[in-house]
Amino acid sequence: MTTKERLIYLPLGGAGEIGMNAYVYGWGPEGKERLSLVDLGVTFPDMDTTPGVDLILPDISWLAERADRLEGIFITHGHEDHVGALGHLWGRLRAPVHARAFTGALAAMKMEEAGHPADNVRIVKPRPETVSAGPFKVQFVPVSHSIPESAALIIDTPGGRIVHTGDFKLDGSPVVGERFEPEEWHKIAREGEGVRALVCDSTNIFQPHPGRSEATLADPLRELVARQEGMVVATTFASNVARLKTLAEAGVAAGRSVCLLGRAMRKMVTTAVEAGVLKDFPKLVSPEDAADLPRQNLMLIVTGSQGERRAASAQLSRGKYLGLEMKEGDTFLFSSKTIPGNERGVIRIMNALSEIGVELVDDHGGLYHVSGHANRPDLEAVHELMRPRMVLPMHGEHRHLREHARLAAEKGLAAEVATNGTMVNLTGEKPEIVEYIDTGRTYLDGTALIGAMDGVVRDRIRMALNGHVLVTLIIDEDEVPLGDAWVETMGLPETGKHGADLAETIENDLGDFLETAPAKVMADDVKLEEALKRVVRQVTMEEVGKRPEVTVVVSRLLPE
Ligand SMILES: [Zn+2]
After folding, report:
1. What is the Å distance from ligand 1's center to 77 Cα?
2. What's the pLDDT score for residue 184?
3. What are the phi and psi torsion angles at 153 (to 5°)?
4. Does pLDDT of 559 surpass 50?
5. 166 CA distance to ligand 1 middle (Å)
6. From CA 457, how far away is CA 512, in angstroms rounded?
7. Cα(first)–Cα(last) distance of the chain, in Å?
8. 471, 536 in Cβ contact below 8 A?
9. What's the pLDDT score for residue 2?
10. How far apart are CA 475 and CA 344, in angstroms?
11. What is the pLDDT of residues 301-346, one digit of tens each?
C-alpha cells in the first residue's frame, strides 16, 4: 500500500509572534515529504524575560532531524527577523540557500561571520527565473517593503501553487526597490490551476486605512529639515535604505552635509550600492569632518531608532560620540515607529535629549514614517487579486493571525490559524491541522546556543530578583562541623532589620542549627543541604524580606 502524497505547511517561528520567521513546506508521502524552508530569522531579547541573552532563534530541532530531506532554504528579504539566524543554524541544516542579490549579500555575511562558506548562498533573479529544489519550483517575485529587494515566493509543487508573500506592502512608488505590480499578481493568480494556498503577512491587519507610499514622506521631511536652525539628527532602521535616501536628500536640499553614524547603517548603504539596488545616494561626510562643520550645516542619520543602548542615538543622548555632541536648539527626529517592547529604551533616550534641550520630533501620526506592511484594505485587495483556495495567515501575533483568518473567511476563503509547531495539510479543499510539533525558542547566550526551557535563564532571573547566598561548611571525619559555616551574600542588603550584618546573622543561625542537628542529617549531603538552605531562607526572610537563591558547598574530610 502506498501512502498518499500530501502538501504540508509548518511554521517553526513567526506564527504567533512578530519575529524569528521560519516556515517549512513539504511535499510527498506522509512522513517522507521532501522539505523546503522559507526564512530563518531572529527575535530580540528583553530585560524582563531574557536578561543577558544575545539573540533568540527558532527551535529547528524537528527540521534538523530531517535535514536529509531538506531541498533548500529560501530567504525572502534581508531583515534580521528573516535572515538573522542563518549563520547560527545553517550548520544543522546544510542545504543550499537561495536569495536575490542584495538579500544574498546580507545572507553571505551572516554565513561568513559564523564560519560557513558563503558560496552556499546562491543568487536568484526575479521571476521568470526558477529554482528547482526537489519537488519544489520556486520563483522570487519582487514586492515593496521597508528594505530593498523584498520578494514573495511562488512555490509550485505537484500538489499545487503556494504563494508565500513574505513581508510586503502595496507601494506604487517605494523610492528604492521595486514597486508593487498588480498586473503581475493578476497573472500569477491565473496561471495553471491558480493559487492553492496564500500564506500571507498579517502584521498590519488592525490598520483600517490603506497603507501609504514611502514617496509621501519626501515633502514633509524636506520641509521639516529646512525649518530647523541647529543640527538635525534623524534615526530610522538601518535597513530602510529608501528612508535613508529620503532623509539624506532632505538634508542636502536644506544645504546640509550628511553624515551616517552607526556601523550597521554604513554597512547597509555600502551593501545596497554594491548590489546595485541603491543609486544616486547623496555624498556623505565622515564623522571626523562632520565635527568641524557648523551645526546648522549638518545632518546626522543615526542607528538606534528602537532605543538600543549601544547604538549611535543612545550614545548621542549620553554626550559626545565620535567628536559630535547634541546641544540645545538641535532637533532629533524619530523617522520610525517604536516596536512594542522597546518603549522604555526609546523613552530613556527622549528624556536624556530633552534634558539637553534638544527638540524631539516623532513620526507625527505617519507624517514622517510609513509602515512596510500591508494594511487591512491592502490585504483584502490581495485576497481579491489572488483568489486562493485557502489563506494561512503568518507573520503576526495570535490576535493578528486570528483576525486575518476571520477576514479571509468573511470573503468565503477557507482559512486556518496555524501557530508555530502546527502542521497543516494543504492537499484538500480546506486547510487541515494534522499534527503539533514540539517547538520553542533557542537562545544565543554569549557564544552558546541553549534551549529556552533549559533553566539557565530561569536561574539567572531568580538570582537577579532574589539575590544569592553562598554557604560553605567543612565536616570532619566524625561528621562534626570543623569550625563555623561561612556565608557570603550577593545582591542582598548588607544589614538586616535589626541593624546587624546579614551574613553574620545567617552564620549565627546556621551555627545554632548545626549544634543540634540530628546525626542522620549530618551524614547525608542532600538532607544537610536542604536543611541549611531552609535556615538561610528563614533568616533572610525575617531580616530583609527576601528568599534568595542559596548554594551550599559541604566539604567532608575523609578518615585516614
Ligand atoms: Zn521585513
Report:
1. 7
2. 94
3. -115, 135
4. yes
5. 8
6. 35
7. 72
8. yes
9. 55
10. 50
11. 999 999 999 999 999 999 999 999 999 999 999 999 998 888 999 9
DSSP label at residue 35: E
| Grid cell locating 391 | 489563506
Cα(169)–Cα(215) distance, integer angstroms: 13
Centre of ligand 1 to C-alpha 144, Å, is 10
Q: How confident is the model at residue 87 (pLDDT cuts 50, 70, 90)?
A: very high
Residues 479, 524: Cα–Cα separation, whole Å: 10
147 alpha carbon – ligand 1 mean position (Å): 7
Residues 6+ apart with CB under 8 A from 519: 479
Would you tell me how many other CB atoms lie within 10 Å of the CB of residue 176? 22
Instruction: Provide the pLDDT confidence category of residue 3 given band limits of 50, 70 and 90.
Output: low
User: pLDDT tens for residues 349-379?
Assistant: 999 999 999 999 999 989 999 999 999 999 9
| Confidence category of residue 177, pLDDT binned at 50, 70, 90 | confident
**How far is the centre of ligand 1, averaged over its atoms, from the C-alpha of 83 (Å)?**
10
pLDDT, one tens digit per residue, over 246-298 is 999 999 999 999 999 999 999 999 999 999 999 999 999 999 999 999 999 99
Separation of alpha carbons 165 and 103, rounded Å: 16
Distance 484 CA to ligand 1 centre (A): 61
CA of 143 to the centre of ligand 1 (A): 11
Q: What angle do CA 269, 271, 274 make, to 5 degrees?
A: 110
| Pair 111, 117: CB distance under 8 Å | yes
Closest by CA position to 234, among listed 299, 190, 281, 179: 299
Alpha helices in 304-387 (DSSP H): 312-318, 343-356, 376-386
Strands 55-58 and 441-445: antiparallel
Would you state the cell numbers that stand for residue 255, as one nine-digit string? 544645504
The DSSP letter of residue 324 is B
CA-wise closest residue to 166 among 178, 175, 157: 178
46 Cα–ligand 1 center, Å: 20
Of residues 478 and 526, the one with the higher pLDDT is 526
Q: Could you tell me whether strands 151-157 and 160-164 are parallel, antiparallel, or unpaired per DSSP bridges?
A: antiparallel
Q: Report whether pLDDT(1) > 70.
A: no
- Cell 569550625 sits on residue: 483
Cell numbers that stand for 381 in this block = 485587495
Alpha carbon distance 350, 177 (integer Å): 32
Strands 232-235 and 298-302: parallel
Q: How far is the CA of 146 from the centre of ligand 1 (A)?
A: 7
pLDDT digits (tens, 9 = 90+) for 106-147: 999 999 999 999 999 999 999 999 999 999 999 999 999 999
Separation of 123 CA from ligand 1 center, angstroms? Answer: 19
pTM over 0.85: yes
* CA–centroid distance, residue 262 to ligand 1 (Å): 20
> What 3-state class would DSSP assign to 221?
helix
Query: What's CA 148's distance to the chain center, in Å?
Result: 19
48: which DSSP letter? T
CA distances from 413 to 153, 166, 407, 480 (A): 20, 20, 9, 77
Contacting residues for 355 by C-beta, under 8 A, at least 6 apart: none
Residue 439, by phi and psi: left (phi above 0), alpha (psi -120 to 50) or beta? beta
State the Cα–Cα distance between residues 411 and 413, nearest whole angstrom: 6
